[in-house]
Amino acid sequence: MIVAAAQFPSVPGDIAANAARMAGLVTEAGERGAGLVVFSELALTHYDLGPIAADPAALTVLADDPRLAPVRAACRAAGVAAVVNAPGRGAGDGAKPTIASFVYGPDGTLLTRYDKRHVAEGESAVFAPGTAHGRFTLGGIRFALATCFDNSFAEVPERAAADGCRVYLSSAFHGDGERVAQYAELARTHGLHVVLANGIGIGSPGPGAGLSGYWLPSGERVAAASVGPDGAGAQLVLSDVRDAITLMADPAVAAVPVRECGEPLVDVRSAAPGLAVDGLKAGADGTGGEGAFAHLREGVLRRLLVAQEALPAGLRLQFVEGYRPPALQRRYFAQYADELRAAHPDWDAARIHRAASRYVSPPQIAPHSAGGAVDLTLVTVDGDEVDMGTPLNASPEESGGACYTAAGELTPAARTNRRILSAALRGAGLVNYPTEWWHWSYGDRYWALATGAEHAPYGPRELGAEPAAPGSSEVGHDGGAAVAHGAGAER
């Protein structure tokens, strides 16, 4: 995923003008391949505390404030999420406002709200501190939120890393480059990708330093905005955080318990004749012509039909592969691991396993072998293929990483088509495995981790076997008979 730090000169007190500027930057970020935009501290009103203190009713907002509608609409149109920092209205009459980050998803709905936990001395007369830790998951990445003075307290990034966050997003209004430079140590100490959106212009504490940027977990700074005369206008600093994606090889996936619901596998060709099915896998899936590839859990099929109804006129889903027998999954995983081993003889077993997990999953955790995953694409109503950026099943090596759902180097048509596919499937409750634009699932371990579900209702099974009794459990763990350590993507 590409993350953009947005740096622009807010108009003091003019929420409408600043929201319009933000909407434009969200649109531009989407055109440049970004999946998330982060704005600086109090960017919606500018970091000018006097007007906010004088008229909090006019200059504070809730997440659904009509004045933020242009930003939410831009998120929906571009398929881009946004972190909008603003004076947030407090709960209850007479409550002080907070310095709030409203996180809008690519569909324009609120993912979370984070209120700055540590207000600075000059802010405490106007704002109350928040109490919750800011967290959200997007595109297979767990993000942490922080605002300016929060970063002076080591427990904030320390807690973010302990909570499994990989990318740390800071909205700030720092006045000097020395303070900005300290993000390198924060990244290095806590092993986090760090993205800073820093303010510019003259604010209550003086001029903002700009210098928005991105630091790798090593502490190396790899992207930066400018300051001074060249930094007077709006800038987007783009950073690729794909290395922060939670792969199925992550122990957190293996740790998700399965509580089998007993839902049957159904053949989509007979159960949903209105769904286009690519027949190339028929008789070629190693199952003696049983058509295993065309099977799915009933709940997944229902959601696919809902997604199809949500597509724009002229487009439809094309089903390519659903269920995959564990034996076939084992073969796929072994073959791809062998390819990587031959190409990279210096890689150890753990690295081979992790790299393989971008593309093929061991059967103990594989969503396809649970009947919960589907590989699909978009076609026209006449069955013609549309531009999706890569062929379905293109590996990271073959595609140069363009198979990643949020890859930056795509044609405008491919980016639009991926956004259409994603919006329809997300709206129906499925989740994507971010290394493969075509792979979506419901009810498996990865889905449970991505959505925060306490358990996965679907576990691996054999086609034709009696389903496990509803409620039977399999607890995830590392390395035992029930679950192998980690897993991977689904080709």
Tell me the CATH superfamily of the largest domain. Answer: Carbon-nitrogen hydrolase
- Give a count of the beta strands, DSSP E runs of length 2 or more: 23
- Which regions have little confidence, pLDDT < 50, spanning 5+ residues? 285-289, 477-491
Please give the count of helices.
15
Radius of gyration: 24 Å
**Overall helicity:** 25-40%
Number of domains: 2
Helical/strand content category: alpha+beta
CATH topology of the largest domain: Nitrilase/N-carbamoyl-D-aminoacid amidohydrolase
Topology:
Elements: E1 2-7, H1 15-31, E2 34-39, H2 49-54, H3 56-59, H4 69-78, E3 81-88, E4 98-104, E5 110-115, E6 134-138, E7 141-147, H5 155-162, E8 167-172, H6 177-181, H7 183-190, E9 193-198, E10 200-203, E11 206-209, E12 213-215, E13 221-224, E14 235-240, H8 251-254, E15 258-260, E16 265-267, H9 268-271, E17 276-277, E18 295-297, H10 298-310, E19 315-321, H11 326-343, H12 349-356, E20 373-380, H13 396-399, H14 412-427, E21 431-432, E22 439-441, H15 445-451, E23 472-474
Parallel strand pairs: 1-2, 2-3, 7-8, 8-9, 17-19
Antiparallel strand pairs: 1-14, 3-4, 4-5, 6-7, 9-12, 10-11, 12-13, 15-23, 16-18, 19-20, 20-22, 21-22
Helix pairs in contact: 1-4, 10-14, 11-12
Pfam families: CN_hydrolase, Peptidase_M15
Biased composition (Low complexity): 480-491
EC number: 3.4.13.22
